[in-house]
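Q: Could you fold this chain for me?
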Amino acid sequence: MSPAFGAMEVEHYSKGVLLEPFVHQVGGHSCVLRFNDKTICKPLIQREHQFYETLPTEMRKFTPQYEGVVSVSFEEDEDGNLCLIAYPLNGDHDNLENLDNSDCEPKSKLLRWTNKKTMLLENEKISKEWVRQHRKEEKIKSHKLEEEFEWLKKSEVLYYTVEKKGNVSSQFKHHNPWSMKCHQQQLQRMKENAKHRNQYKFILLENLTSRYEVPCVLDLKMGTRQHGDDASEEKKANQIRKCQQSTSAVIGVRVCGMQVYQAGTGQLMFMNKYHGRKLSVQGFKEALYQFFHNGKYLRRELFESVIKKLTELKSVLEKQESYRFYSSSLLIIYDGKERQEVAVDSDPEDLEDLSEESSDESAGAYAYKPTASTVDVRMIDFAHTTCKYYGEDSVVHEGQDTGYVFGLQNLIDIIKEIRDESSE
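A: Sure. Below is the predicted structure, expressed as structure tokens.
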């Protein structure tokens, strides 16, 4: 066992860790939960688990780091709070040696989500807690709270104002209605099965948003085909219909979810998969433009890095023999925190604290360029991935996943179009 994961951390972890909603989940139907700042977890699906344990070395930089398996229970504490608690799998800590456990919330410090009379799964009480946490200064009647939460759940595109006081990133908790929806559904499923089963395996994965203060996340469903080889006829027909009615069939990619910080208004913009399915190719392009626009200006400095990483990923996937990434998503992530700008002809140390406002005032005297920004491009969701190395699959494919590669190339081309048009 590594020194970083010593006896104290193991003892802390063995008490059970409270799993919270992962507030930066913008797409998908599987519930993603926060294990700690650097780690998330999701229900273990055997095919996805197999993918992470056997993925080619050259693909690892384009997927979240796999960090092991935990056992998750659906529990009530002494006050009647419904919680999901993670425990080591069979008391075996070997596969968690490198896991930073210092930020985990132990079971003894359960978050008080609700009381015994009103369970977490009741929408009205969730909405009250939601608004109570983030709009304490406003006095809103109970029926208004219920209406607000119902609106949040039904709206396909919405803007949510972030409180101006304090660190922007500290205001993110529970803002994202999609993550709350997935969390509720997961609790409901586990509650219904509690009498028959209360031990679930979850996989631990790297939290790709942890490095960003204000993560802007774009979830893209990739490929011209979404159904797996084992899909029922009904599922197959449903997925084909969704592809044909969206941009998936035409360009091999569609918007599955989006979260963007609007610096101009201090708002978060959310777009869910239902809106993404309705977009035309032009609408898809406009959504991409919106993802790279912070409400004040287009983040042009991000384009080259995104294009470079997408091109590298495309090259890697073109060499993957037999893999098919059906229903997989691609995440593009960057920091929505406003960039600082520096004068080209000035000493960077002298301008270290230069704000955008002051640079605007001095625009006549200096030319400014943006500081470097980090962009991440990662593949996620491999529940329907297949390849000949798995052995048990009845269908064996040859060559590259042409539908996925087709989508990547079109994505690259559209981003280049946005870049070129914005520089004219």
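A (continued): The chain is about 30% helix and 20% strand.
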